[in-house]
Design goal:
This protein is mostly helical. The chain is built from 17 helices and five strands. Strands 2-3-1-4-5 form a five-stranded antiparallel sheet. The longest helix is centred in the middle third of the chain and has 25 residues. It is globular, with a radius of gyration of 22 Å.
């Protein structure tokens, strides 16, 4: 893989190998998410069309298909059909469990679709320019929205101090200092996203992106947190180098390329535009947070399930290990810790998914009054206040 490859075809080939390798690393680091031999954390299917007993064997087949297609795509000279196989298997796996809609999976999926559409067009010069421009917009949008989601009270006062704990040591930041630092970090990430799209700021933003990923990776490794995104940070840093380090042939105006691009070319441009625009809807609750760059943003909902002492004994061992007792004496199962312990990814932070998981806990406990879903909604942007909602098993079944 040549990171400093010249020419559209060479860049796209390097990016294809990088994305396939990155996705394979992600699968290896979250094995139970894809090959659920020892999985007890409930699935949250978008389409619940298959009988419960059919899902695990089907997931094994789709998981094997995904890994095989990605591995072959690393070296294939004509990768189009293998990319399509990877996209199809990944899409079906995502439909069977929304927990798989992690930000890194979503980004890899979109990039694979663009690469497959480019391969379908034959990888000529025109298609290569269109595809590279689309991929640049996708990557730049990821940085921009990742920063925009961090413009909130909770990021500066809760998430950022935890992330920076190894670097800050005994240094304590409070009040206005935390707010200012949080805004600065968010603004810097947004600047990187915007600056990558312009030639005058591109070199500076490439350096900022590499430094940012190096810092994040060091902090996560130092704390042993969320190893699934370690490989993603490396892949994103290398993606920036491949896509932005040098400019190729100047692109024609968008209107000309739209007329000449054909069906696949237009699909690539539309996909990139939607990826860049749809996160706007997340601020109104109309688009999912993890599809809008909200990882480590402090801007997502959190859920726990309260269970009775007797009912908790019916939970899987991995869930029982995460139980804790509150000051008021309630036994609580945090979904984040349960998912991380078993799948090495956070639960998908949307209320509909929390309700699906809680319904399965109700089924496991076997008592309609023995469990209750407690959701802390998205914190207020300005002061971090939030609304708590509760629903017992009877209400969850309605």
């Amino acid at each position: 893989m040549r990171l400093f490859a010249k020419g559209e075809a060479a860049r796209l080939a390097a990016l294809r190998r990088l994305v396939c390798a990155g996705m394979l690393c992600g699968v290896a680091l979250t094995w139970n998410l894809w090959f659920p031999s020892a999985r007890s954390f409930p699935r949250a299917p978008l389409l619940d069309a298959c009988p419960r007993e059919v899902v695990p064997p089907l997931e094994y087949v789709l998981g094997a298909m995904l890994v095989t297609a990605l591995a072959v795509s690393l070296f294939a000279k004509r990768p189009a059909k293998y990319l399509v196989a990877a996209i199809a298997s990944l899409g079906l796996l995502a439909l069977s469990d929304q927990t798989r809609w992690q930000p890194w999976v979503y980004q890899y999926f979109i990039v694979l679709v663009v690469l497959a559409l480019d391969a379908r067009r034959g990888g000529d010069g025109r298609s290569g320019i269109d595809s590279l421009d689309a991929l640049r917009l996708i990557v730049a949008s990821l940085y921009f929205w990742g920063g925009a989601q961090k413009l909130n009270y909770s990021f500066g006062h809760e998430v950022l101090p935890q992330l920076l704990a190894p670097a800050l040591g005994r240094l304590t930041l409070e009040g206005a200092q935390l707010s200012a630092l949080g805004v600065a970090v968010a603004a810097a990430e947004m600047f990187v996203g915007c600056g990558l799209l312009f030639r005058r700021t591109r070199r500076l933003c490439i350096g900022c992106a590499l430094a940012m990923h190096g810092l994040i990776l060091g902090l996560l490794i130092a704390q042993g947190r969320n190893s699934a995104v370690w490989a993603w940070n490396v892949a994103l840093a290398l993606t920036v180098v491949i896509l932005f380090r040098r400019g190729d042939t100047p692109a024609a105006p968008v209107s000309d390329r739209w007329r000449a691009g054909g069906t696949s070319g237009r699909a690539v441009m539309m996909l990139a535009a939607l990826y860049a625009v749809l996160p706007t809807l997340s601020f109104f609750g109309w688009w999912d947070m993890y599809l809008s760059g909200a990882l480590y943003s402090g801007n997502t909902a959190v859920a726990v399930v309260r269970v009775g002492a007797r009912e908790s004994e019916r939970l899987p061992a991995s869930a029982r290990r995460q139980l804790f007792t509150t000051a008021s004496g309630e036994r609580v199962l945090p979904l984040f810790e349960w998912s991380m312990a078993e799948l090495n990814v956070p639960p998908y932070p949307e209320p509909r998914v929390f309700r699906q998981v809680a319904r399965e806990v109700c089924r496991l406990t076997g008592d309609e009054g023995g469990a209750e879903l407690i959701v802390r909604g998205r914190p207020d942007v300005l002061d971090g206040r939030y609304v708590v909602s509760r629903a017992d098993c009877r209400q969850l079944g309605e």
